[in-house]
Amino acid sequence: MADYRNELIGTSPALDALRGLIDKVGRSPTRTVLIYGETGTGKGLVARMIHQASARAARDFVDINCAAIPASLLETELFGHEKGAFTGAVDRKLGLVEAANKGTVFLDEIREMDLTLQAKLLSLLDTQQFRRVGAVRPVSVDVRFIAASNKVLLSEVTSGRFREDLYYRLQVVAVNLPALRDRGDDVLTLARHFIARFNRAYGRSMRGMTQETEDIFLRYPWPGNVRELENLLERIFILEDDDEILPRHLPDRILRNVAGSATPAPPDGGGDYHAATEAFQRGLIGQALTRAEGNQQEAARVLGLSRHALRHQMIKLGLLKA
Ligand SMILES: Nc1ncnc2c1ncn2[C@@H]1O[C@H](COP(=O)(O)OP(=O)(O)OP(=O)(O)O)[C@@H](O)[C@H]1O
Ligand SMILES: [Mg+2]
Question: Which of 4, 45, 176 gets mutated to test ligand 1 (max ligand atoms within 8 A of its CB)?
């Protein structure tokens, strides 16, 4: 079996710290862990790693997305029910918590859990016992719960949608996943990792990213984090035939975003207003043209101008003969 530690790609200080934390939390006896992180930062992956780092590794890891199961079904999914507990309950059914005994239950998107079920979960955390729906007697289990949320739960507590006592209970061991934009060069390491993987999966021999593409990847804020990067690269593998990832393979939202953030800084000493503004415009257009490999239509698109307006500007700035 591959070592789970190799699954987490990245060498930034933020990721090194995360690896250390996963090991510590994994090996600790704690029965609750809370993982915070923006969408696509690897909450699912880290939950699995915590399980694998623990003494529970040989037992089950059960993954439940609280947002994907209707509230009415979530309780029986988790806790099971007795025969005749409600119409249609023709047999006893074991819940996932019981199935995961001695293992780990991953409660993804925990803030979607309703208040009644939160109370039942808290009681289970306190007593390590619960009742199947319709049962008289409690059942004892030894389960670690890893909960995940992409929003800070405290605001849900304030608005009354999340139980304060459960929040503090979960908060004891919290793992915060850094956003991809805060991981420095890791975005390039991850990109190379995904390129190698898609080369194998698609039987391709993509060599990598051009320097321009790398520069864009380093500047783009990646709101969808690692998943956004992974999906973007897969799309390029499917749609493009080149053997390098080029800026023109990237979607508008990315090119536009970095075009805006890559504006040259104004000269220090102030200087002539018109000369400085024109130098700024020249820099902006020059960059867009470089990235579009000289294609004016593409450069105009990135800058949010019509091709006509771009040519007009270029003539005005002396970049093009009328
Ligand atoms: N550091 C990493 N190294 C390698 N792959 C990663 C890393 N972080 C995330 N991934 C991959 O990125 C994808 C998204 O990760 P994951 O599904 O765990 O994110 P998430 O935080 O659970 O997102 P969401 O909140 O949208 O559910 C997965 O394919 C995962 O394997
Ligand atoms: Mg997830």
Answer: 45
Q: What is the tens place of the pLDDT at every residue in 133-143?
A: 999 999 999 99
- Note the pLDDT tens digit of each residue in 74-93: 999 999 999 988 888 888 88
Q: pLDDT band at 267, cuts 50/70/90?
A: low
Taking the alpha carbons of 311, 316, 320, 322 in that order, is the dihedral positive or negative?
Answer: positive
Minimal CA–CA distance to 256: which of 222, 229, 220?
220
The domain 263-322: what is its CATH number? 1.10.10.60
Q: How far is the CA of 32 from the centre of ligand 1 (A)?
A: 21
Instruction: Return d(Cα 255, Cα 296) in angstroms, integer.
Output: 14
Out of 3.30.70.2750, 3.40.50.720, 1.10.8.60, 3.40.190.10, the CATH code matching 183-262 is: 1.10.8.60
Ligand 1 pocket mutation, candidates 7, 41, 51, 151, criterion most atoms within 8 A of CB: 41
Q: Ligand 1 — pocket residues by CB below 6 A?
A: 8-10, 37, 39-45, 150, 190, 226-227, 230
CATH of domain 4-178: 3.40.50.300
